Amino acid sequence: YVIKKFLEPEIREIHFRALCGELTVVCENDLLNMNAPRWVPEEISAPEGLREALGADILYCGKTRDTLILLDSAKAVRELQPDIPALARLTEVKCAIVTAPGENSDFVCRVFAPAFGVDEDPVTGSAHSTLIPYWAEKLGKAELISHQVSSRGGVLACRDLPADGRVEMAGKAVCYLVGELQIDVKEE
Asked: Which residue has the higher pLDDT, 4 or 120?
C-alpha cells in the first residue's frame, strides 16, 4: 500500500520475496490483490492445552506452518477471548488461525500469534494461504469471501488456485497515519 500510495503511484504489480516464497500484489484502484503460496492443512490432534487456552471446543485442528482451528459458529469465533499468555506457552502453536462458517461470508476467522509478539492480527494475508484451500475443499468452490472478525476487521475476496499451488486474496487498504520520525544519532 505504501509503495503504491506514496513511492510509486504508477506501479501496477509489485513482487516481494518472503520466507514463505514469492508474493505478487496487483494494484487495481483501491484494491490490492495478493497471490501467495497455497498451504493445505493436515488434520492433527489438538495440541495439549490448546482447548483451555482458547476457552472453546475445537471441532477440527489442522497443521501447515500454522495451526488451523475450527469452531462451531461465527459467533463463537467473534466472542472468543483466548488466554494469550497460555497460548504463547504452547510450543506446538506459533500462529493460531481460528475459523468457522460465516453468516454473511463463506467463513470468518481470527488470528493469534503471541509467539511472534502479535496477540491478535487484524487482517492476515499469510493465514489465508491455509484458510482458502481448507474452505474451498469444504464448501466445494474456488471463490470465497472471508471476514476476519478482529476488532478492526477486514473482508477479503479469495480464490483457490490448486493447479498453480497458489491462492489469491483481494481487499482494500487505507492510510490511518502519516507522520515523520526523527532519530538523533549521537556520535561517539
From this structure: 120
Asked if residue 178 is part of any domain, the answer here is: no
Q: How does residue 181 score in pLDDT terms, banded at 50, 70 and 90?
A: confident
Closest CA to 75 of 52, 100, 51: 100
CATH number of residue 119's parent domain: 3.10.310.10
| Residue found under cell 491478535 | 120
pLDDT at 160: 98
- Classify residue 58 as exposed, middle or buried by CB count within 10 Å of its CB (0-12, 13-18, 19+): middle
Say if 185 falls within a structural domain. no
Alpha carbon distance 40, 132 (integer Å): 9
Convert the pLDDT of each residue in 125-176 to its tens digit.
Answer: 999 999 999 999 999 999 999 999 999 999 999 999 999 999 999 998 877 7
